[in-house]
Known about the structure:
142 residues, mainly alpha, 9 helices, globular
Amino acid sequence: MTTEATTATRGCDHLGDSALVAQFEATTLPSADYRHREHLRIAFAMLRGVDLADAAQRFRRAMRRYAAAIGAETRYHETLTWAYLVLVQQRMRDHDDDDSVAFLARNPDLLDHCGGALARCYDVAEITASPIARGIFVLPER
Length: 142
């Protein structure tokens, strides 16, 4: 198998949004397949048809359960979680995409977790390393 083929089969693009969310909430999603892209796809799916508060509560609970299940509970980051949920919701109002794959194709800057959309609001390296921002939501300074 070529590197290109391996890259194409990584992750969870073979799963629809409902199946992806179900595996995430059941903590059966393979940790090797959970990347930033899946984080955004799940956020999109959970935000569809509900308000931010309900989606955020559901997502945060599931994210903490999932992180604990894969032995990565210390990697949960409150500020990044909220920031991406708000960014995804904000982008969703502009178009009525049928699924998260179409949404991400329309919003590729969200996939750049080191810069992109988040970098317009935060110093990404600084906020990622901040123990305070890991534990509580920190408003952007920009």
